[in-house]
Amino acid sequence: MNTSDEFYIGWQNQAPKGIGSHVRKAVFLLMMTAPLLSVVLVLTQRTIGNAVFEWGTIKTFSGILRTHPYPHLLVARPKSSSTPSAYYLVAPFKFGLKPEALAALEGKQVLLKGTLIYRGNQTMIETLPESLQLATVPSQMNTFATPNENLGRQTLVGEIVDSKCYLGVMNPGQLTPHRACAVRCISGGIPPVLLVRSKTGPPMYFLLVSGDGHAVNKEVLDMVAEPVQITGEVERQGELLMLRADPQTYRRARL
């Protein structure tokens, strides 16, 4: 080693001038770049979205009960709109409502109590099953016709998520880290939804049903929380978009 080189021992009170100068420059550079790096990291993170679960707030709802393909409630919109809002109905915890238990109330106006879960234009009610009852006062909802509108055959690429967690109970409620939870929820009766993201607009949600319009909870479990491509008939029922396709035709894809 050249005897003219500076040498610093840690227990010395002061470093040599050359080493001290380099250290000060390095510290100054780090102080200047750290805030910028923090901003860059924040801006490059994908937002988890504005999902809400009104935990602990029980409200009363009234509407027309539909049990297929999954239980949902048709609720009158303000300003006498002819198209009702459609709210998914699920039970507490990781369970859906059983359609066979609601068969007597199919197509009738009901009252129920529950907690709102929502994200974007999608709304769900975590229903207290014991509160479900026939409404004693009829409303104009009985005059609303909600036939299925066929939007044609489409091929969509997205991720199968459990609607309850994704809409607000767990955030973000998607992708591989949420897979185990999503499988439990969907196997418990929570409606499976195909989440289709868009680079130019808000995401779209398609309720997954079989080709003949039945629930497909058990059939989709091995493809939850990963990219899939599905080709089928898209239908609209009120606000709900449904994708009819045989789960055997689902294909793994890349997003």
Q: How would you characterize this protein structure?
A:
With about 260 residues, this protein is of the alpha+beta class. The protein has three domains: about 15-45; about 50-145, Beta Barrel (OB fold (Dihydrolipoamide Acetyltransferase, E2P)); about 150-250, OB fold (Dihydrolipoamide Acetyltransferase, E2P) (Beta Barrel). The protein is built from three helices and 13 strands. The strands form two sheets. Strands 2-3-4-6-5 form a five-stranded mixed β-barrel. The chain has a five-stranded mixed barrel with strand order 8-9-10-12-11. A hairpin with a 5-residue loop joins strand 2 (about 60-65) and strand 3 (about 70-75). The mean pLDDT is about 85.
What's the gist of this structure?
Helix content is 17%, strand content 33%. With 255 residues, the chain is an alpha+beta fold. The chain has a five-stranded mixed beta barrel with strand order 2-3-4-6-5. A five-stranded mixed β-barrel has the order 8-9-10-12-11.
Order of helices and strands: HEEEEEEEEHHEEEEE
- What is the count of distinct domains? 3
Order of strands in the sheet with most strands: 2-3-4-6-5
**Which quaternary structure do these chains form?**
single chain
Mind describing the biggest β-sheet? Answer: 5 strands, mixed, barrel
Described by the principal axes of the CA atoms, the overall outline is: elongated
User: What's the gyration radius in Å?
Assistant: 27 Å
CATH architecture assignment of the largest domain:
Beta Barrel
How many β-strands, per DSSP? 13
Helix % is: 10-25%
Name of the level-1 CATH class of the largest domain:
Mainly Beta
CATH topology of the largest domain: OB fold (Dihydrolipoamide Acetyltransferase, E2P)
Instruction: Point out poorly predicted stretches.
Output: none
Q: Kindly report the average pLDDT value.
A: 86
Q: What is the distance, rounded to the nearest whole angstrom, between the alpha carbons of the first and last residues?
A: 57 Å
Number of helices: 3
